[in-house]
Amino acid sequence: MLMRRQFLGAGLAAGAAWAAAGFVPAWANTAPNLGAPTLPNPGFRRTRVGEVEVVALIDGIARRPLGEEFVRNAPLAEVKALLASQGLSTEYVDIPFTPFLVVAGNRRILMDTGLGDWGGPTTGKLLENLRAAGYGPADIDTVLITHYHGDHINGLRNRAGDFVFPRAKVWVPAPEHTFWMDDARLAAAPEAQKGAFNNARRTFGQMPADMLQVFQPGAEVAPGIRSVAAFGHTPGHTLFEVASAGQTFVYVADLTNVPALFARNPDWAVAFDMDAEMARRTRREVFQRIVASNAMVGGFHFPFPAFGRVETMADGYAFHPMA
């Protein structure tokens, strides 16, 4: 196990490497020598949470080679052994991108937006799957953003700069917005990080004041939907809890990437966590609360349909997708 300072430093370095990709992580483009991931058909799945409906809408899947850098604080042989024990490839990892739609009465609330026009051929499917589920982009009245990594915000605007969800109010966490929109931080950032800062400006910089809604984590962002601070993956990474008729759905966004690895081993650090030590603590705290409450959980990078249940397993947790 790394000492705390080494562990934190590894996470910050990984965050810089992620940000080097600018608009979108380079790994969102499937490596051709590894074959293409199979996209689910249909690319949406519905479930009920009390009196509301939650719809998983897959934006796509990226396949990336599995190397030493993916898990920052575990030997590659140990990582491969865990994947093999679950019948998964040891040569690559498939990373899905799944926003969620909450349908509550006449409200249509989208949580995160996927890669939009900015990813590879096996991504950018959100609008197609939204329409297949019976909705169009103009039906969305609210967009909730968990954090400013490109695979969560790039679907807000197309390459022409138009707003994809023209009627929606876009709610963003204040600490996340402050971090990425800070001119001093941009100026001081290493060259490798500037792409991510500029991507936030491309997305939010000219957004009308009546569209952009900045909230403090912990606030209610829509009736029955509460925001939850979950810092570490990014400085303002925020989750959303949907409560209805005594039932709860927790959208955990990037609390864990590839649950077969990072839920099973919550102390392992994925390459994309900007503060690995804080992300580790947050991951354990949130999973513990979810298990204790028996809430349904949904994750942006979880295997489709991306929602299900979490249970304790050894010193970690196991995610069980809904059948």
What does it look like?
The protein is of the alpha+beta class and 323 residues long. It has a single domain (4-240), classed as Metallo-beta-lactamase, Chain A (4-Layer Sandwich). Helix content is 27%, strand content 25%. It has a seven-stranded mixed beta sheet with strand order 1-2-5-6-7-8-9. It has a seven-stranded mixed beta sheet with strand order 10-11-12-13-14-15-16. It has a two-stranded antiparallel ribbon with strand order 3-4.
**Spatial strand arrangement across the major sheet:** 1-2-5-6-7-8-9
Task: Report how far the terminal alpha carbons are from each other.
Answer: 36 Å
Q: What is the helix tally?
A: 9
What is the chain-wise order of helices and strands?
A: HEEEHEEEHEHEHHHEEEEEHHEEE
- Major sheet: 7 strands, mixed
Q: Give the integer mean of the pLDDT values.
A: 92
CATH-level-4 superfamily name: Ribonuclease Z/Hydroxyacylglutathione hydrolase-like
Mind sketching the topology for me?
Elements: H1 4-19, E1 44-49, E2 52-57, E3 60-65, H2 76-85, E4 92-97, E5 100-104, E6 107-111, H3 126-132, E7 142-144, H4 150-153, E8 169-173, H5 174-180, H6 183-188, H7 191-204, E9 212-215, E10 220-222, E11 225-229, E12 238-244, E13 247-251, H8 259-262, H9 276-293, E14 296-298, E15 307-313, E16 316-321
Parallel strand pairs: 6-7, 7-8, 8-9, 13-14
Antiparallel strand pairs: 1-2, 2-5, 3-4, 5-6, 10-11, 11-12, 12-13, 14-15, 15-16
Helix pairs in contact: 1-7
